[in-house]
Amino acid sequence: MIKKLITSTLALTLALSVATSTADAKSKSTTFKDVPKTHSMYKHITSMKQKGIISGYSDGTFRPNQGVTRKQVIAMASKATQLKPVRKGKEFKDVKKSDPNYKRVQLAYRAGIIDGKSNGKFGLNDKVTRAEMSKILVKTFKLKLQKGYIFNDITKSNSYKDYAATLYAKGIISENKGKFEANKVVTRAEYAAFTNRTINPSQALKPSKKLKSTPVKAKVANTSTSPFKKKPSKTPPGAKLLKTEKFKTGGVCKTYSYNKKISGGNKIKLVRVNKYVVSI
After folding, report:
1. Any idea of the CA torsion for 106, 107, 112, 117, to the nearest 10 degrees?
2. CA distance 77 to 145
3. How far apart are CA 63 and CA 86, in angstroms?
């Protein structure tokens, strides 16, 4: 009787153990209902969730297009790696010791991966920009700084220039048509992808170009086909000025009547000029 009872108990325990393990595995492998397999960041988001680095909301969504907050970023950093202190802590006006985020904020600040705001606050719910993101990732994962330029909107005076160059060189961010867009807010999906590429080099992008030693200049649009030379300060030959519009930003738009034959026997009747841009 006792032997049967022990056998039954062991069988039940084993069954529960297997069921629990299966449930845990399923929970870790299940993605979010608003991140289908067709989503461009699906593999990154899924990988980060399986590793326990990111989590979603109580309704089962991840909200990939929402801007990632400073609170969420330091949470991911603390889960992705062991943050070690490199400086003393600092108290912030908006994060009291009673705040559930206090310890994590202090951990991140002491590790040097993120700073406070100029107003003495930390800004838990403030969105993270690409400039801030570049520094946080480099500092969090102690990436070796790369020097150089690839983005035409970064100059020598930008404090984040080496962080941006490092992320590009390591395939964490793309060349993005030559634009870094430092002040653009990073989405939750993008940050998950950047983090995944950082800790999984096999998932990183292959840089399309090499870093340059000097700042990259933006390409100027070719306006050589314009009927106007340089600034259209004078009425063009054969055209009659109809009206001039001034904008609050300082720009000026001039509208001309301009009867001119073009291919196909058609005629140009009106020409609008805004600085160097001519529209018909």
Report:
1. -30
2. 19
3. 34
Task: Identify whether the C-beta of residue 37 lies closer than 8 Å to the C-beta of residue 30.
Answer: no
CA–CA dist 136, 154 (Å, integer):
18
Q: What CA–CA distance (Å, rounded) separates 140 from 177? A: 27
What is the spatial distance between Cα 169 and Cα 209, in angstroms, rounded to a whole number? Answer: 9
pLDDT tens-place string over residues 217-248: 987 655 555 444 445 445 556 677 777 777 66
CA atoms of 160 and 135, how far apart (whole Å): 7
What phi and psi values does residue 103 have, to the nearest 5 degrees? Answer: -60, -40
User: Kind of pairing, strands 267-274 and 277-279?
Assistant: antiparallel
The per-residue pLDDT for range 70-84, each reduced to its tens digit, is 999 999 999 999 999
Q: What is the pTM of this model?
A: 0.70
Asked if residue 68 lies in contact with residue 37, where contact means CB atoms within 8 angstroms, the answer is: no
Closest CA to 190 of 261, 128, 97: 128
